[in-house]
Each structure stands twice: as structure tokens, then as C-alpha cells.
Design brief:
two-stranded antiparallel ribbon, alpha+beta, 3 helices, Nucleoside Triphosphate Pyrophosphohydrolase, 7-stranded mixed beta sheet
């Protein structure tokens, strides 16, 4: 994903313009559990619990990108994914746009297909623990929190 730093105003702030700004993430429910990934994020110098996902290629349907990224990062495959909408994770800083998906159609497991720079741990957490982590701000990733909320609004989760 190519980056272009630019300064569009006189404030001195730098903005990031991505050549491929479309990203996808998937919130997956497996029985009474939700599936997450955790990986180290250098900008915040911390391990962050997130949803599996990544960039969508320009020619790729968003649902196909969501399924592909889900499989690459978790090792699980999934069938139907339900679109929850999109969000701008940091519109004051970047043109990045994330499309949120939900699935409860998790299928076979295989080896993760990680990129060279990725080290990802997969977690299954009980839904009740996830609600607690949202409530006490242990889940700090905006995409994860938004996907849980929108999944509840769409009737996919009972919180």
C-alpha cells in the first residue's frame, strides 16, 4: 500500500493519503465466542486486539477481500459475510476507509497465510467477556468496537 505524505494546509500537520484506501475487517462469531487477532503495532508501541482484515485490491469485491483476509490472518475460512457499513478510522489523519463485515459462518481451519511482517495470535473470547472489555475500555481498537456495536444493531449479537 503506497503512502503519500502531504501538507494540505499551513498548520504543519502531515496527512497520509493511501493509494489504496479501502480496507476490510471481519467480526466472526463461533457459537458463544467472538474471534479476534492480536498483533504488535509499532505506532502505539503495544500489542493490540483487533479484527482480522486488511487491504482490498482495486479489482476485488469487498466481501471477497473480507473472506480472503479472514482466512490469511486466522487460518479459518468463512462462507457468508454480512456487510455492516463502513467507517473512517482516522479522518483527521488519513483517507483510509474500513468496511465492516460480520459472519457466523466460520468453517474449516488451515494454516495462517501471513505476510512476512505479520506475527498474529488468534483468540476466541466468550461474548460476555467481549462486552466487559468494551465496557471497561480494554478493547481500544475503533474498528473492533464499531463492529461489535453494529453487529448488535443489526441483530447478529445479543449483548
Amino acid at each position: 500500500m503506497a503512502l503519500t505524505n502531504k501538507i494540505p494546509d499551513t498548520s504543519g500537520r502531515k496527512y497520509i493519503a493511501l493509494d489504496k484506501p479501502e480496507a476490510v475487517v471481519v467480526l466472526a462469531k463461533m457459537g458463544g465466542f467472538l474471534l479476534f487477532i492480536e498483533q504488535y503495532r509499532p505506532p502505539v508501541e503495544s500489542f493490540v486486539m483487533q479484527l482480522p482484515g486488511g487491504g482490498a485490491e482495486p479489482h476485488e469485491a469487498l466481501a471477497d477481500a473480507a473472506r480472503r483476509e479472514f482466512t490469511e490472518e486466522t487460518g479459518y475460512t468463512c462462507g457468508q459475510v454480512n456487510y455492516l457499513g463502513d467507517m473512517l478510522p482516522a479522518p483527521w489523519r488519513s483517507n483510509d476507509r474500513t468496511h465492516l463485515f460480520f459472519t457466523d459462518d466460520v468453517q474449516d481451519w488451515q494454516e495462517q497465510q501471513l505476510e512476512d511482517h505479520e506475527t498474529i495470535q488468534v483468540y476466541l473470547l466468550p461474548l460476555s467477556e467481549c462486552v466487559e472489555r468494551v465496557t471497561n475500555n480494554t478493547f481500544t481498537d475503533g474498528e473492533l468496537n464499531t463492529a461489535i456495536f453494529r453487529s448488535w444493531l443489526h441483530g447478529y449479537l445479543e449483548l
